């Protein structure tokens, strides 16, 4: 965690003898900005294979040594770097989570995080009026260069997060014996499809999404060398009836992190179409932030509430488990089950087609 307190500092904070609000602001946002800058500059990648002196690192990154040193000292205090015998080195945390050599690097999501933080600039407006304050990025003109860049950061960040944390989800899901066809509804970056295909060699994935998402998914397919096991269909899952052409074709369908983007009646309608694409006995896998499934975890509760706030700002919302269960059962699914994940913030729900 970015704020690393000593034992004494923790005690003083618990006794309310330290001004804890100052830890949340400006210290925490400041450390976040430092981390984003470090990822954008490529500091962790530069130190991935070997430790470097200040001068060598500055030359490699084309930075002023004195300016770079200010950033490096903050990264040391925050626990991302160490200084040994005049040379900088990644900590184990940075090496695992922030270098491109790691298959579970979340650095692209870190780089994307300022786009999320910018949404919170509308917080006073949302609190006063409790209504949408800005549009979804998907609703903007993707031909605009700034929008295209923002969408690229968005999809790259989500793909990185899925690759880093999705393994647990895939391991918890039991797909039908002999399954060969998976439909990833709104799957965009296709990272979850890639993880399922890796685990199940006989599985072929079809990713259905809008064009910017499809472009991101094709990049994932290339990066994971799964181009031959992925098919991409460009379409609007809300406005188009994709179930007509795909009826009863799939053993498994994914509905991952879609529900919070849509109002309840739209979710119910889209899930009905998803269920129609499943074979009898097919499995629907649902993943999202579920408001009543934080399992007494402070971290999970915080993440779910932040998602609820963010989604309210852009016109979405988060739902409780009974609501999701009712959508699935009305669409023709049974055996609706929720599964607790070790990774906080999202709830896995599975159901079987009657």
Task: Walk me through what this model shows.
- This protein is α/β, with parallel strands linked by helices and 354 residues long.
- The chain has two domains: 93 residues, Arc Repressor Mutant, subunit A (Orthogonal Bundle); 189 residues, Rossmann fold, CATH 3.40.50.
- The protein is 49% helix and 16% strand.
- It is built from 15 helices and ten strands.
- It is globular.
- The N and C termini lie far apart (45 Å).
For the sheet with most strands, the description reads:
7 strands, mixed
Note the beta-strand portion: 15-25%
C-alpha-based Rg, rounded: 22 Å
Structural class call reads alpha/beta
Fill in the CATH topology of the largest domain: Rossmann fold
- How many helices does DSSP assign? 15
How many structural domains can be distinguished in the coordinates? 2
What is the fold's blueprint, element by element?
Blueprint: H1 7-14, H2 21-41, H3 43-46, E1 52-53, H4 54-61, H5 65-77, E2 81-84, E3 87-90, H6 92-97, H7 107-119, H8 123-129, H9 145-172, E4 181-185, H10 191-199, E5 204-209, H11 211-223, E6 230-234, H12 243-246, E7 250-256, H13 264-276, E8 278-288, H14 298-314, H15 321-330, E9 333-339, E10 347-353
Parallel strand pairs: 4-5, 4-7, 5-6, 7-8
Antiparallel strand pairs: 1-3, 2-3, 8-10, 9-10
Name its key features.
354 residues, alpha/beta, Arc Repressor Mutant, subunit A, Rossmann fold, 2 domains, seven-stranded mixed β-sheet, three-stranded antiparallel β-sheet, 15 helices, 10 strands, globular
